[in-house]
Design goal:
Helices cover 68% and strands 0% of the residues. It has helices at residues 9-20, 25-32, 36-48, 50-91, 112-115. Helix 1 (9-20) crosses helix 3 (36-48). The longest helix has 42 residues, at 50-91. The termini are far apart.
Length: 116
């Protein structure tokens, strides 16, 4: 079964620079456990400048992930506060003069004239 791995831009750039410095495809392939054809593709992309665009996209993605993590922490904090406040409302003593009925409406009239 074929393995599919995602390599970082830094790793790809490092392997390409080693190749351009004179390292053989066979040696790089064995040392980094990467297919020779994949290294050729990386060299072509590097020479075309595609790695620069990928690096910028990776930086933007990292910024988005950091922002998402910060927002998730904020949502978690607010959820804890909400649960705390719900618990505080449930455990708060009710005033004696307050009605305990679920149905709230006008008070019932005590006179027979209004009841008819």
């Amino acid at each position: 079964m074929a393995r599919h791995r995602a390599h970082s831009i830094e790793f790809k750039r490092h392997v390409v620079q080693e190749f351009l410095a004179g390292e053989t495809l066979h040696g790089l392939s064995k040392r980094h456990d990467v297919c020779r054809n994949l290294i050729r593709i990386w060299v072509q992309k590097y020479e075309a400048g595609d790695f620069e665009e990928d690096a910028a996209a990776a930086d933007l993605l990292q910024q988005y992930e950091a922002r998402i993590a910060a927002l998730e922490r904020l949502v978690g904090k607010q959820a804890l506060e909400l649960e705390f406040l719900k618990g505080a409302v449930k455990s708060a003593p009710r005033p004696r003069s307050a009605t305990t009925s679920v149905v709230v409406g006008p008070r019932a009239s005590a006179s027979q004239k209004d009841a008819g």
